[in-house]
Design goal:
Aspartate Aminotransferase, domain 1, Aspartate Aminotransferase, domain 2, binds pyridoxal-5'-phosphate, 2 domains, flat, alpha/beta
């Protein structure tokens, strides 16, 4: 007689077809700009986690943290409940009194890109830091090393920067700048899992790497994120901040990992106060559950393939668009020299003003999903209305992104037929929006 787990496995195998991803038909099905590739493998893992009935972070979370850190060639990984929480945790770690005179204090300045995702920087804004925005390079959509160098001032304490759409900025050089000046550096890799600079993965240069496992991303667990570092002290601080600020590092369900549970004396607490209830940081609870981690483990086995497929799709879309002459109308994406991107989406910037909105409306009507490059120039967002900020230099290219850029999908659920359809519709969109001598029907005499 098969036991309950074996029955579950057999049942899932029997119904695998129902959970296999269905092919999308161009022109009939909507082609989203991003999507998740999940199926029976992920379902089997969730079922295993459900059969455990552990419910919080447990064996799957621990296994994911170990395997993911190994995959990334980084020492330590902490699983959290979103990419935004990963950024929150990483930033607040920089403010910990455990860092003594290196801790970031309120009213210090940090540097970021004007074209960023809000939650790369919201923790720093919430903490009361002053943002200094830099512009992006129009071709790579990332700030240059020189722009960061110029933005550094006497009050700069952190650089918080995401690799835009999977295209790396030179975090190797920026890390060196930061190190020389005692500035903390957070590499937000939420959109760039698997991108490299030379042979080294992005995220291995900064003090922290963060990533998101929301369904749009290279690897998904529904909601989820991670914080990775090679720095033992930062890891220790982040672990405590993630888990209520406690001093104890026992995983859920474990006790006395330190073998001194009733022997510590910390703060002004009495000797022997249970280490489980000693709080050395002003913390959060940002943990995830084993259900999410179990899905992540199934996805991790496919991550390299997902990354290759995204990059192959990006290359193919460039070929299709170039063959159709799209580069007359759009700036096509360009990898930062010296780097290997892990593309998140395909960004097109209309050369001419006023084209973007009608083009995305046209594409959506053709069932092609479009997205904007996050907040465009973030300084223009309503969230910034009551925040004091400054810019280092002009934000001219960020304004161009805000007005004229959009992106479409390269996620692994898309293949050549989808990309060919998307490329051809982009060209039709241009003629639909911008009648030229060739396609204007002469008015009746
Ligand atoms: C660059 C970047 N950072 C952070 C996040 C936040 O991740 P999450 O949605 O998991 O909170 C995102 C989300 O897409 C992102 O693109």
């Amino acid at each position: 007689m098969p036991n309950f787990r074996e029955k579950l496995r057999l049942l899932i195998a029997e119904h695998a077809e129902e959970y296999a991803s269905k092919p999308l038909i161009p022109g009939i099905d909507y082609l989203p700009a991003s999507g998740k590739c999940v199926g029976p493998d992920e379902l089997s893992m969730v079922a295993e986690a459900a059969a455990d009935m552990w419910l919080t972070a447990g064996r799957f979370a621990t296994e994911f943290e170990e395997k993911f850190a190994q995959w990334w060639s980084l020492d330590k990984c902490l699983l959290v409940n979103s990419g935004s929480s990963a950024n929150l945790l990483a930033f607040f770690s920089f403010t910990s009194p455990s860092l003594k005179d290196k801790a970031v204090l309120r009213n210090a300045e940090f540097i970021t890109s004007a074209c960023c995702f809000p939650s790369t920087i919201t923790p720093a804004l919430q903490y009361g830091l002053h943002p200094v925005f830099v512009d992006v390079d129009p071709m790579t959509l990332n700030p240059t090393v020189e722009s960061i160098r110029q933005a550094i001032g006497p009050k700069t304490r952190a650089v918080l920067l995401a690799h835009t759409m999977g295209n790396p900025y030179r975090s190797d050089h920026i890390a060196q700048l930061c190190k020389d000046r005692g500035i903390w550096f957070l590499e937000d890799c939420c959109d760039a899992l698997g991108a490299k600079i030379g042979d080294s993965p992005v995220g291995s240069f900064g003090d922290f790497a963060t990533c998101s496992f929301y369904p749009a991303h290279h690897l998904t667990m529904g909601e989820g994120g991670a914080v990775l570092t090679n720095d033992r002290l930062l890891h220790r601080i982040a672990l405590s901040l993630r888990d209520w600020g406690r001093d104890c590092w026992c995983p859920p369900g474990a006790t006395n990992t330190c073998k001194r549970r009733f022997d510590w004396q910390l703060g002004n607490l009495p000797v022997g106060y249970d280490h489980k209830y000693v709080y050395s940081q002003v913390g959060f609870n940002l943990k995830t559950t084993d259900f999410q981690a179990a899905v992540g483990l199934a996805q991790l086995k496919k991550l390299e393939k997902f990354i290759q497929k995204r990059n192959a799709n990006h290359r193919y879309l460039t070929r299709c668009l170039q063959d159709l002459g799209a580069d007359q109308y759009f700036n096509l994406p360009q990898a930062t020299p010296g780097t290997s991107p892990s593309w998140f989406g395909y960004v097109l910037t209309c050369r001419e003003q006023g084209m973007r909105t009608p083009i995305v409306k046209y594409l959506e009507r053709q069932k092609i999903g479009t997205r904007l490059l996050f907040g465009g120039n973030l300084t223009k967002q309503p969230m910034m209305a009551d925040i004091r900020w400054s810019a280092s230099g002009s934000l001219e290219h960020s304004n161009k992104v805000m007005n004229d850029s959009f992106w479409i999908g390269v996620w692994p659920g898309l293949g050549k037929s989808h990309l060919e359809y998307m490329a051809s519709k982009i060209i039709s969109a241009v003629s639909d929006v911008k009648p030229t001598a060739k396609n204007v029907v002469p008015a009746a005499a």
